[in-house]
Amino acid sequence: MSQMPQQAAVPKCPSCEEPLESGDRFCGACGYDLSVVPARPEDSPTLAVNGAVPAPDGVDWPVARDSDGHGHPAPAHAAAEVPGTDSGGSPLPPPPPAPSAAPAAGTESPAPGVRLDRPDEPDEYPLQAPDPRLTAEGAPAPVPAQPRPAGPAPAEKVCVACRAGRVDDDGYCENCGHAQPRERDHMEQESGPVAAVSDRGLRHHRNEDAFSVGCTVLPDGAPASVAIVCDGVSSATRPDDASLAASRAAGESLLGALPRGTHPQQAMHDAILAAAQAVNALADEPATAREQAPHQNAPACTLVGAVVTAGLLVVGWVGDSRVYWVPADRSAPPARLTEDDSWAAQMVAAGLMNEAEAYADERAHAITGWLGADAYELEPHTASFKPDRAGVVVVCTDGLWNYAESAQEMADAVPLDAAARPLHSARVLVGHALDGGGHDNVTVALLPFPAPPQGAGSA
Length: 459
Hints:
The protein has a six-stranded antiparallel sheet with strand order 1-2-12-11-7-8. Strands 3, 4, 5, 6, 9 and 10 form a six-stranded antiparallel sheet that branches. By secondary structure, the chain is an alpha+beta fold. It has eight helices and twelve strands.
C-alpha cells in the first residue's frame, strides 16, 4: 500500500493494526500478546483458471459423507425393500414410493437431516423432504410439522473451516473463530476489450485496492475503453473504503462524460475531482467520533486511470500508481507514462539522488500526493498520447510495479497476446507479483490500443 510521509513503515499489531516498536511483547493499544502470533504460512500462489477464483486459503471443500457422487448422502435401505414373503408364504407387496427408514422399537424417530449412525451430528447436505405417502383412498395424507434440523439455518453462512459454525457479521466463525474469505480478497472483471484483476497478496490481511473498468462510445460512434485503479493509503483510516469510493466515482464520471462529447483529457481531469469529492465525503463524521478516536485520520487513496480511443491515449493520476505503454511489436521500446507523487521521485527530480538510490531508501514510497480530506493540495495530473502503433496499456498499483519497475521489465512480464487476451494477461501479471513475494495488494488493468470495436473481447 502507499504510505503518507508522516508515518513510517513499522510493524503493526495483528489485532488492532496499531504500530509496534522493536522489542514489544504486548501491543500498547489493545494489550494483544505478540508471542502467540502464529508463524506465517508458506504461501504458494495459484492463478485462477477459466475465470474461477481459487478456493481461499487452500481449503479442500468437503462432500457429504457416504455420498452418492452428486453431493447427496447415499440412500438407506429399509427392511421392506428386501425381497421376501409373509408368514403365509405370499410375496410381500412392493414398497410405497420414497420410503423412510423406520426407527427401532422403543426409540423416537430422528429429526430430518440427522444421520442414523450419528444422531447428534447434523447432515451437511439435508435431503429434500420426500413426497407424502398416499392414503388408502388415494388422497395425500396430511404432512406433520417437521422439527427444524440442528445447526445453522440454510440462509446463514457456514464456516469454510469447521463447516459447522455460523459466520457472524464481522466475518468470523462463532464456533472456531476462523476468519472467512472476503469478496475483495480476489476480484476479476472483463468489460469488452478491457479487463482488470485485483488480489490481496500474500502478506496483507485485506485488499485495500479497487478498480473500475468499462466501455462506451463517443458521439461519433467510435469506441472508448476506460480503466481506473486506486490504492488505499495504508496509514490512513478506512483505506479500503477510500479506494472503492474513488474508483466508482471516477469510473462513473468518465463513462458519463465521454458519450456527451467531453474531450477525454478534460473528462479524466473531472473524473479525478469527482473521485476526490467521494473520498472527502468519507471523512464527514460526528464530532464525538473524532473525540473517541483522536488517532484516526481521514480516509485516503491514490488514483491512476487511462482512456483509450481509436487514436488517442489519455492518462491521469494522483499518487504513485502507474501507467505503462507496451507496444505489440516488442522490438519497439516500451514507456512509463506517469510520474510518481513520491519522495523518491522528488529526490530524482531535484538531482539529489539517482533513481536506484532513491528507490532503495526506506522513504521511497512516502507519497506526496493523494486523494483525501487531509491532502495538502489536489493537483490532478493528465497527459495525452497518440501512439503510432498497436499495443497494450498497463494500469497498475505499486503492488505490481515493485516487481517490474522499469518499462522494459514490465514489457517482459506482459504476455505477447495481451491485446487479444487482456483478462488472461492481467492474471499472469498478478501471478508475477505473487511469485515475487506478494508483499502488497496487487491490482492491474489492461486496455488494448487502439480501442477495438464494441463487442470485441478476450479470446
